[in-house]
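subagent[fold] <- orchestrator: predict structure for attached chain, return tokens only, no commentary.
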Amino acid sequence: MIEPLVDVEKDFPIFRREVHGHSLVYLDSAATSQKPAVVLESMDRFYRQYNANVLRSVHTLAEEATQAYAAARDQVAAFIGANHPEEVIFTRGTTEGLNMVARGFGDLFVQPGDNIVLSPMEHHSNLIPWQQLAKRRGAVLNYVELEPDGSLSVDALNKAIGPKTRIVALSRVSNVLGSINPVAEAAELVHRYGGVMVVDGAQSVPHEPTRVSELGADFLAFSGHKMCGPTGIGVLWGRAQWLEMMEPVIYGGEMISYVDRETATWAELPHKFEGGTPNIAGAIGLASAIEYLTTIGLSRIQQHTLTLGERAYDALARVPGVSVYGPKHPHAGVVAFNVDRIHPHDLAQVFDAHGVAVRAGHHCAQPLMQWLGVGSTARASFYLYNGERDIERLVEAILEAKRFFQR
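subagent[fold] -> orchestrator:
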């Protein structure tokens, strides 16, 4: 029996509650993860003991806040193997980071007739910014065709990436299919033609050791709230050469170097991209989450969620009338499925009545739903606080839903 990697009720206060008289089984971490007490306490400590704005005042509270904010950036840089902390830009999340690249970098880098390569499995946050960039610049969107099981092959990448490719934007892990994509191979291909690799790390950075050099990424975006951190904080990492070239998209505050009545110049990295008062508590909470995950070990978390994802895939596939999507192996800790003649939203409501939290819908991946030939799916996603008993509860909830709707 696979047990959670942590003392669930001790570390995560939310698991002390019941839902409709049942202990909570939280299988929606691909949407947002639960938060350990150490993260909540670090943010509470900031607000109670040294709440002040950063980079402005010189009083004690401001200096302590500035030091904590800078230390958080250092911690993120070390966590993803960045060469310099200045390459780490704090954002509101993955969506904002990808939009910043498409607008601030893409508008300068992409020319009419250039290709932008995507896959049909991309989250809308890694699709719509490139659609809009293509419209603005007269570029062409080129989609990598998926294999029948929803995986992405190197052969398909070879067919899609060519001399006109300027940007390849792919998720490392699909938020629906659980497929683990060969972004390093994609990066090697696009670099041959002088293009850049943009990686959506929202579903991968929380679950596996990440080194930007090994990914071959030129830009990497991810969110704190999917990795035990708070909402409203995320990271855009970029190679310094591209960040220097890139234009800011948010103006004002500390991103300014000099202003007169007619002109302005920008501050040095990373402040050039962080106009206005930043999410200081969020950055501190994210640093605490990174410390928590690092103590447990990202390699352990990776193996744990992979094992749970594949066991859930097998367990659901054995239930009559259940369709499971994505490759069988390797399969990350997110499993999308449908049950014959039961709408995913109805399914999720029955689950909730039994204390099992899943997501139902198109998961912000409508082109992928079209490729699958469905309108929506249910989705169970796993993290370090889940264990094999949660898969059993999920299967029990499916069987109860089938009995309920048969009645």
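orchestrator: received. Logging for downstream: The chain has two domains: 8-31+297-398, 40-295. The two ends are 33 Å apart (CA to CA).
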